[in-house]
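Query structure, 115 tokens:
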């Protein structure tokens, strides 16, 4: 419901006031067929990134997947591919989180890229 409100540029309360449950149900079904919003845009970028990385990986390296470039997606739950993975760990500062993501990214791909 929040994704739909965001996509339509409406507050959730206004969306609920203006839309009946039948139409909301239809939107939910449509989203299952054709996801929209930030996840879809991130997926498009991840496809391009994985294609580029695969073009430059070593022959021995495991092929990259789009999910490799979407660290917020829980790879163990493919059914819920559009739901970000939530961690119970306390939040780090944005700078610390960025440094940690860069370190993880480098470690994850170091052995699979041509030198």
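Result returned for the query:
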């Amino acid at each position: 419901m929040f994704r739909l409100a965001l996509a339509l540029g409406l507050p959730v309360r206004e969306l609920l006031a203006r839309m009946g449950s039948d139409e909301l149900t239809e939107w939910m079904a449509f989203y299952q067929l054709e996801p929209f919003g930030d996840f879809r845009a991130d997926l498009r970028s991840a496809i391009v990134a994985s294609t580029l990385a695969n073009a430059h990986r070593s022959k021995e390296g495991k092929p990259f997947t789009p999910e490799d470039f979407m660290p917020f997606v829980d790879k163990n739950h493919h059914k819920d591919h559009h739901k970000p993975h939530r961690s119970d760990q306390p939040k780090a500062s944005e700078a610390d989180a960025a440094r940690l993501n860069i370190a993880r990214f480098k470690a994850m791909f170091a052995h699979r890229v041509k030198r």
